[in-house]
Specification:
Bound molecules: alpha-D-glucopyranose
Strand content: 15-25%
Helix content: 25-40%
Strand order of the largest sheet: 11-10-9-5-2-1-13-12
Number of helices: 17
Structural class: alpha/beta
Distance between the termini: 60 Å
Largest sheet: 8 strands, parallel
Number of strands: 20
Radius of gyration: 23 Å
């Protein structure tokens, strides 16, 4: 096992790579790729299984790049594939600079990166700065004695009294349990905002900052296009570790952690990323209660390039609720010239199709809303297939956080194996044969083809990819907006209500969520759970 990340794996690979695919060229603008692009999240365990062991792997991702190129995504974000005991399925990292054998090896990662780049697809990797695995050698050393040189790489405190943790913070995924665990070896408590197997790193220690910068350099040197940074708002903490006041004391501490030192740490990461050329992006997971909390993490153009905007994942299928969120995003982000992002699904939450009731019409209309909003959209693998969450029988539950349903394997083929080894790690999602990639590719009316048309429309239109957004007055139940840029213009209408409505806008239907009438003038009415993109 490697001792640290100081090494020159990247020396064989120039950090400056030049786009080969035509799709990397953003026409008519010098905006960085991550503003106009669409990012596709791959959860490696669930994506594609090349070696047939029932768990997805990096070679599986490489073999399925055809699908991603055909779909038309600009970048892939890979959830963790690093060495890990898998207490949190990879978000507990025991070596930040190596690939877990379950997923392949570093040479396999390099092959994937190279082939993705040759197809014009960028690769963003997950960076998990807040914690390591308890099996990481740093923590193994840290827990050994109070005098170990690595002791203060983690957060150790005395309890308040016998059996009493240092404060009232709650950990995530441990059912109301404390964020502190007593380690009998040294009779002190260590902090873990997540599972006890995920001790928090101590970013107040400059040695930790330097070590984690080395991790970033390791992957940047290999040629990655940036990082999705896990719970980055958690890394700075009040050095006094005060109790959380109500109501925050009722929920895991990480859901409200806020400390000014975090901003300085993010500025450090940004400066490092910018010392490389090629628009390396920093995308922060700032899972805080709302846009007002998230906006400061863009800094003054010197912190995150993008912060996940989870507003839509909390919004019901309701035009008023969505409108308010779109307005709030502009209110908070525009004064900072910060570029928004949009997310409907990911590996931590119930897929949007299931959240919105399970029907395909709504999932399709939601895709139109996501892909024509102002901001960088994030797609979660399988949403282009209209997947719902899988039903997980009690004896197959594996995630302590209850997130197995959205992590069901992607069905590639309609035969019973769906392109996987004999025993996939989780059951397939409902209707897997009909929603498999091969079945949907053969059917031009499928939701998969809708996503592809939306991505193509977005790429071809400066208004849709980069333009300003203006909300429009619309009949009850309808969310309507106009996008415009350099004389290019589009209007999106999304009907979230339950009765057909008459709409007054005229224009040619460029994309329709149900595929009906594309290329024709809009007929003046809109059915519930449908959406259209109009061009003048
Ligand atoms: C983030 C990840 C989640 C993980 C947690 C702890 O929220 O998205 O999957 O469990 O951080 O790393």
């Amino acid at each position: 096992m490697k001792v640290d990340c100081h090494h020159s794996a990247g020396s064989s690979r120039s950090p400056t790579w030049h786009p080969v695919g035509w799709r990397l060229v953003t026409p008519r603008t010098d905006a960085p790729w991550w503003r106009s692009g669409v990012v596709y999240q791959v959860y490696p365990r669930s994506f594609a299984d090349a070696d047939g062991d029932g768990v997805g792997d990096l070679e599986g991702v490489r073999q399925r790049l055809d699908h991603l190129e055909w779909l038309g995504v600009d970048a892939v974000w890979l959830s963790p594939f690093y060495r890990s005991p898998m207490a949190d399925f990879g978000y507990d990292v025991s070596d930040f600079c190596d690939v877990d054998p379950l997923f392949g090896d570093l040479a396999g990662f390099d092959r994937l990166l190279e082939e993705a780049h040759s197809r014009g697809i960028r690769i963003v990797v997950d960076f998990v700065p807040n914690h390591s695995s308890d099996q990481h050698e740093w923590f193994q050393a840290s827990r050994r004695s109070r005098d170990d040189p690595k002791r203060h790489w983690y957060v150790w405190r005395d309890g308040r009294g016998p059996g009493e943790p240092p404060n009232n913070w709650l950990g995530a995924f441990i059912d109301g349990g404390s964020a502190w665990t007593l380690d009998p070896a040294t009779d002190q408590w260590y902090l873990h905002q997540f599972l006890p197997e995920q001790p928090d790193l101590n970013w107040a220690n400059p040695e930790v900052v330097e070590a984690m910068h080395d991790v970033m350099r390791f992957w940047l040197d290999r040629g990655v296009d940036g990082f999705r940074i896990d719970v980055v708002h958690c890394i700075g903490r009040d050095p006094d570790y005060p109790d959380d006041p109500p109501p925050w004391s009722e929920i895991p501490h990480c859901a409200s952690n806020e400390h000014p030192s975090t901003h300085a740490h993010i500025r450090g990461m940004r400066a490092l990323a910018e010392s490389y050329d090629g628009d390396r992006v920093l995308i922060g997971e700032t899972a805080l209660p709302g846009t007002r909390w998230v906006a400061p993490y863009y800094g003054r153009g010197d912190e995150l390039h993008l912060a996940f905007n989870f507003a839509a994942t909390h919004a019901p299928w309701d035009a008023v609720a969505w409108r308010r969120r779109v307005e709030r995003l502009a209110e908070e982000l525009d004064p900072r010239s910060a570029w928004p992002s949009w997310v409907l699904s990911n590996h931590d939450i119930v897929r949007h199709r299931s959240r919105y009731g399970g029907g395909e019409a709504r999932a399709r209309a939601a895709a139109v809303a996501l892909l024509t909003q102002r901001g960088t959209p994030f797609l979660y693998a399988g949403e282009e297939l209209g997947l719902e969450d899988a039903t997980i029988p009690a004896d197959r539950v594996v995630d302590p956080g209850g997130r197995d349903g959205c992590r069901a394997p992607i069905p590639w083929t309609s035969d019973p194996g769906h392109g996987w080894g004999p025993s996939p790690w989780l059951p397939f999602p409902p209707d897997a044969a009909r929603r498999a990639v091969d079945a949907q590719r053969a059917d031009p009316t499928s939701i998969l083809h809708l996503y592809r048309r939306l991505l193509a429309a977005r790429r071809a239109s400066p208004a849709l990819s980069l333009g300003a957004l203006q909300l429009l007055d619309a009949p009850p139940g309808v969310l309507a907006w106009r996008r415009h840029q350099d004389g290019d213009e589009r209007i999106t209408l999304v009907h979230m209500g339950d009765r057909p409505v008459v709409v007054e806008w005229r224009g040619v239907v460029e994309v329709a969520s149900d595929g009906v009438g594309e290329g024709d003038e809009l007929r003046g009415h809109l059915q519930p759970d449908t959406a259209v993109v109009l061009r003048p």
